[in-house]
Hints:
Blueprint: E1 4-5, H1 6-15, E2 18-22, E3 25-32, E4 35-44, E5 49-50, H2 52-61, H3 66-74, H4 79-88
Antiparallel strand pairs: 1-5, 2-3, 3-4
Amino acid sequence: MRTCKTRDIAAALLKKGFEERSSHHKIFYLCICGKITGVHTFLSHGVNEYNADLLTKMRAQLHLSGKELDDLIRCPLSGEEYVTLLVERGVLEK
């Protein structure tokens, strides 16, 4: 997996149904129908670009493969398709 700019990741997550909360990190929670789910990930305030190691941690938090995370960030994977994947994997209920 290649590196990815933090602002691009944040923009993609917000487009796909995540809501941002700030603390010592930016925390992105997946929201469905206005309700926060247990799916979340973190972005650090001080990191401008995420390398493969950080993206691997994010991939695990979001329950995705490397290709799927890349598709989520670069937009071939829609928010609805992402939720469908999570339901199929038993992470979320219908």
